[in-house]
Design a protein that fits this description.
The chain is of the alpha+beta class and 343 residues long. The chain has 4 helices and 6 strands, in the order H-E-E-H-H-E-E-E-E-H. A hairpin with a 4-residue loop joins strand 5 (306-311) and strand 6 (316-320). The chain is globular.
């Protein structure tokens, strides 16, 4: 029998060919990755804006029900009590963040039912700088169930671009209490306030030409926003981490967790207004590269180049990093009589 020899083609790749293929794949990935990241961030920024829009609708639904907007917070126990100057603390302490009152209007009615309005939301009732009244708590935040509520994640209060620490420390300064075993969830969005509102009931003592829409025990009505709802910032965005102080919990007010000030004067005017220049060697870098604003109440975000703000008419606008603080202050004041252009 004759056996024919068969010649087979070469199987597989040589090492050089394999390395070339790997190099081509790596180049394609390197080219595609920035585009993928850009698309992902665009989607996250849209989701972030939608969260603020939901909160804008909630604000107006609350206003329709109660004929005024919710307070930025109620009855702080950690504030500076100076009654001779008009800054007097309340008789009992609630430490409530007004975002809790919006829960029924963002499809969180079941969570809102856990809230006990007869009890405090956190246990801090002493001022760390200045004079405190040391008023009693309205009730225990842990026994009442308010602490457990504060530990619940609410996606509407969270920017999807921010990968910072979402939880507050378990202590009696920034937390619900001290060694409670419960860490509260932070919020990326909060009411527009004055950053120095660590004095008791400062909102009602602030002159109208600089007063924000919200503050401790604020009672703003639509008619009070004389600059126009479309010209006044109602809420701002911030990062989950900050260099000085702590980002607020959505459910309560801890030490100097007052909200978000769109234009705090402590920031450098017109230059990286969202950025921490306290701890970074290059203050020109956006917060997306290190993920925290400089101090409590400063606005900020992980979105490249700027930050979202909710206006009182329910619209959301993105402001660039270079926006002058003076312009932001005009937009944050609800009755200063000034109108400026914005994006």
């Amino acid at each position: 029998m004759n056996h024919r020899k068969r010649r087979f083609g070469r199987a597989g790749f040589t090492l050089i060919e394999l390395l070339v293929v790997i190099a081509i794949i790596a180049i394609l990935i390197a080219l595609l990755l920035p585009a993928v990241q850009k698309v992902r961030e665009a989607a996250n920024r849209t989701r972030c804006a939608n969260n603020l829009k939901q909160l804008g609708v909630a604000l107006h639904n609350y206003e329709s029900a109660y004929k005024q907007f919710p307070p930025g917070g109620r009855s702080y126990g950690w504030c500076n009590h100076v009654p001779a100057q008009g800054y007097a603390s309340d008789d009992v302490i609630l430490n409530l963040n007004g975002l809790v009152l919006l829960l029924p209007y963002i499809e969180q009615d079941n969570l809102y039912r856990q809230y006990n309005p007869r009890a405090a939301s956190s246990s801090l009732n002493r001022c760390l700088s200045g004079t405190s009244r040391n008023a009693p708590l309205a009730g225990d935040p842990i026994a009442s169930g308010n602490g457990a509520m504060a530990a619940t994640l609410v996606a509407t209060f969270r920017c999807p671009s921010d990968n910072g620490d979402p939880l507050l420390d378990d202590n009696d300064i920034y937390g619900i209490g001290n060694n409670t075993g419960i860490r509260a969830q932070k919020t990326n969005y909060d009411f527009a306030v004055q950053y120095w509102e660590w004095r008791c009931n400062a909102w009602k003592q602030t002159s109208l030409n600089i007063r924000r829409m919200f503050g401790e025990n604020s009672t703003t009505r639509v008619g009070d926003v004389t600059d126009g709802l479309s010209n006044t910032i109602a809420m701002g965005e911030t990062t989950l981490n900050c260099a000085n102080g702590r980002t607020p919990a959505w459910a309560y007010r801890g030490w100097v967790q007052v909200g978000v000030d769109p234009g705090p004067t402590a920031q450098p005017s017109g230059i990286n207004v969202w950025v921490s220049n306290w701890t970074q060697p290059n203050p020109g870098r956006p917060p997306a590269q290190f993920g925290r604003v400089g101090s409590w109440s400063w606005p900020g975000s992980f979105h490249p180049g700027g930050c979202n703000f909710l206006f009182a008419d329910g619209s959301v606008h993105f402001f660039s990093e270079g926006t002058p603080v003076a312009r932001l202050n005009i937009l944050a004041a609800m009755a200063d009589g000034q109108v400026v252009t914005f994006p």
